[in-house]
Write a structure and sequence with these properties.
alpha/beta, 5-stranded parallel β-sheet
Length: about 400
């Protein structure tokens, strides 16, 4: 995922020539395959105003730090990642993993993650999901239905192991973003916040419970959750799951508290835990992202959100959606910036976060195969990946 630099509408689709090296030959295992000479392909995206220049004053969002604008996130699905401690496995979950991932496994993998060129890791929720007491062990493994916001899931490690991970990542120059589910939980009786002593008010709602944000204790509780991990662990920010479940005014309160906690660390001379970045997951169109997450300049909620409309434009232009829908670079140019600035849908402080895929969406390579746009041994498979990443970076 990358924060999409926001340009003026007239300069968004500037000509971009991408020299893309082909993937090379297929598999085979004997070591006798002759070396393949890489072939350069040029993919050019043109528009009628391709030679206009970007207005640097409009990149990212007003008042954003260079660090926040330059985040390049590597998502880690904790239970499906790497087994670093074979005594604490989940052993169940969705998908083909052996579901033995844990925090030590992530620590062991930091050099690899760093080598991919990212500068931040986003962990799926690490908080206790009460595997031993809930019936749906697979759901518990995802972390998205928490039972204790102030303690790490023992199937992933300990609170100290999370601190070790944050410190180890920082030592390698990697930011750490935690995943926060502030709108729902698996229980109505969450443990009290350690400082304020309050509990949120919960309402039964299908699977689990949703948070009643008309009650002051709910706001106090989740504000403490959000700042606790800044102050005590030095994390660099939050990805907020189903952000539409939290009112914009409450996001304003929580975000302000997180930014203040990060600023206090900076004032104290800390190098890390000073970013205070918060990005929303609101799987919706532009208007709903504004109404449910961004708000407006008079009452800004969260200032960054995953840009689902642009995501779909991107994958359609260089590949396909999971349902097989395809598009073109021309339609990408025409539609991908409708939300921001000159079009006036997103507020000017908005910092859309662009991405190719995440844990809710089939992998890009999988949809290429489904749409018959390239198999793993085809040049097109690698070229379309490179085009997607290049467009994201640009």
């Amino acid at each position: 995922m990358m924060n999409a630099a926001v340009f003026k509408r007239t300069s968004l689709a500037m000509m971009m020539a991408l020299a893309l090296a082909a993937c090379g030959g297929g598999g085979g295992g004997g070591g006798t395959t002759p070396p393949v000479t890489p072939t350069n392909y040029e993919v050019t995206i043109n528009s009628s105003n391709a030679n206009t220049t970007a207005d640097s004053g409009k990149t990212c969002h007003q008042g954003a730090t260079t660090e926040a604008c330059g985040l390049r996130m590597y998502q880690v699905m904790v239970e499906a990642f790497v087994n670093g401690d074979d005594t604490i496995n989940y052993g169940v979950g969705y998908g083909p993993s052996d579901h033995k991932g844990d925090l030590q496994g992530i620590i062991n993998s930091l050099d690899y993650i760093k080598s991919t060129g990212v500068n931040a890791i986003w962990l799926t929720p690490v908080f206790d999901s009460c595997k031993s007491t809930v019936s749906d062990k697979q759901l518990a493994a995802t972390g998205y239905f928490t039972c204790d916001y102030f303690n790490v899931d023992p199937n992933f490690g300990t609170n100290q192991k999370l601190k070790d991970l944050v410190d180890a990542a920082h030592a390698k120059g990697l930011y750490v973003i935690l995943d926060g589910v502030f709108g729902h939980a698996i229980t109505s009786n969450l443990p009290a916040a350690p400082v304020s002593g309050v509990k949120p008010v919960m309402v039964a709602a299908g699977t689990g419970y949703t948070v009643d944000y008309t009650k002051a204790n709910s706001i106090t509780f989740f504000t403490e959750v959000a700042t606790h991990y800044i102050k005590n662990y030095g994390i660099d920010g939050w990805r907020l799951d189903q952000s539409y479940q939290v009112p914009v005014a409450v996001w304003n309160t929580i975000r302000t508290a997180v930014e203040d906690a990060a600023a206090a660390r900076a004032t104290a001379g800390e190098q890390w835990g000073t970013l205070g970045y918060m990005v929303a997951e609101d799987w919706a169109g532009q208007d709903q992202i504004v109404s449910d997450t961004y708000g407006d300049s008079s009452l800004p909620g969260l200032k960054s959100a995953f840009d689902f409309p642009l995501h779909y434009g991107l994958v359609q232009a260089v590949g396909a959606e999971s349902n097989g829908s395809t598009g073109s670079p021309t339609s990408l140019y025409a539609n991908w910036n409708n939300g921001v600035l000159d079009a006036g849908v997103y507020p000017t402080f908005a910092m859309p976060n662009l991405f190719i895929g995440n844990h809710d969406i089939p992998r890009f390579g999988d949809v290429l195969q489904r749409a018959k746009l390239g198999d793993v041994r085809d040049d097109a498979y690698c070229l379309r990946h490179k085009a997607a990443v290049s467009l994201m970076a640009a």
